[in-house]
Design brief:
GO cellular component, one term: extracellular region
Shape: elongated
Helix content: 10-25%
Distance between the termini: 54 Å
Radius of gyration: 29 Å
Family: Belongs to the zona pellucida-binding protein Sp38 family.
Number of helices: 4
Protein name: Zona pellucida-binding protein 2 isoform X2
Number of strands: 15
Pfam families: EGF_Sp38_C, Sp38
Largest sheet: 7 strands, mixed
Main location: cytoplasm
């Protein structure tokens, strides 16, 4: 039985009434340095970094005699040539500095001069935020007293859970309050203000990841589908209100246009958002820098002066 039909039957049962009538993220390209200006680069966790060129764009367009390249990474390990990292991890984040050495040769005297230029790259691991949705709807009711309000609330939650269970999503933190609402030309009406969250972490949700390192891509895809299903469910309730019941409504019914939805982002431990520091990746969950940590699924990294690593999950 379709979910909207089931709820309609429940509403009929409850009332017995007649019916009436929403810097840069990187690909796999080549990134040049900028003399005197650190270049910020954001690499998705477990993906490959772009190729970092120890040279600026203008120099790359010119002849360069006897070039040599010297890299120093966060672990102070010397590297040479162009730099690219596979399967990027939190610990690989940090400052990468390179020095380009080359020669200029005077045509008249063949006098050689060694020129050195330093380039800095600040590289940060990031991951997509985990999506969840805060939703709210309203239903009319006969009275703010009595067991039918609680019964409707519990039945609605069960219907919504069943609607999205195959997506490993579920309804959490549901609540409702009953209010008196003064409606023009209709006087006072009792209404249930129902609120709940929907997230993609129902029991067994990791089974949907299929061993994928980027599980948030899968869970975010699932929660978007869950949002669409729930929105369609309440849209069908409005359709019933206007088309299917010959201008009769139950005493308890969905209030048209009352459905509201807001996306809420969270970051995995060791990651957080900081629009000031990471304006070029403002929507990303960026690895927590030294001096900060994130112990849970918060949205920001907290201060902790003793931390000297990237991606800290505790202040130790």
């Amino acid at each position: 039985m379709r979910a909207w039909v089931l709820l309609s039957a429940v509403l009929w049962y409850l009332t017995g009434a007649g019916w009436q009538r929403s810097s840069e993220r990187t690909g796999k390209g080549l990134i040049y340095g900028k003399p005197g200006h650190p270049v910020k680069i954001y690499v998705k966790l477990h993906h490959s970094s772009p190729i970092l060129a120890c040279m600026d764009f203008k120099r790359a367009k010119k002849e360069t005699v006897d070039p040599t390249y010297s890299w120093i990474g966060p672990n102070e390990k010397p590297l040479t040539g162009k730099l690219k990292m596979e399967d990027f991890q939190e610990a690989l984040s940090g400052l990468y500095s390179c020095t380009l050495s080359y020669k200029t040769v005077k045509a008249e005297t063949q006098e050689e001069t060694v020129v050195k230029q330093r380039y800095d790259f600040m590289i940060f691991a990031y991951r997509e935020p985990d999506y969840s949705y805060q939703m709210a709807v309203r239903f009319t009711t006969k009275s703010c007293e009595g067991r039918y309000n609680d019964l409707l609330f519990r039945v609605l939650k069960k219907i919504l859970d069943n609607l999205i269970s195959d997506l490993s999503c579920h309804v959490v933190e549901p609540s409702y309050k009953c209010h008196f609402v003064k409606i023009p030309k209709h006087g006072l009406v009792h209404e249930l203000f129902i609120a709940f969250q929907v997230n993609p972490f129902a029991p067994g949700w990791k089974g949907a990841c299929n061993d994928s390192a980027d599980c948030e891509d899968i869970t975010n895809h699932n929660i978007l589908q869950a949002r669409d299903r729930i929105e369609e469910f309440f849209r069908s309730q409005a359709y019933i209100y206007y088309h299917d019941f010959n201008k009769t409504i139950p005493a308890m019914h969905f209030v048209d246009h009352s459905f509201q939805v807001v996306r809420m982002d969270s970051c995995r431990p060791g990651f957080g958002k900081n629009e000031g520091l990471h304006s070029n990746c403002a929507s990303c969950c960026v690895v927590c820098s030294p001096g900060t940590f994130s112990p849970d699924v918060d949205v920001t990294c907290q201060s902790c002066v003793s931390i000297r690593v990237y991606g800290a999950k505790s202040c130790t």
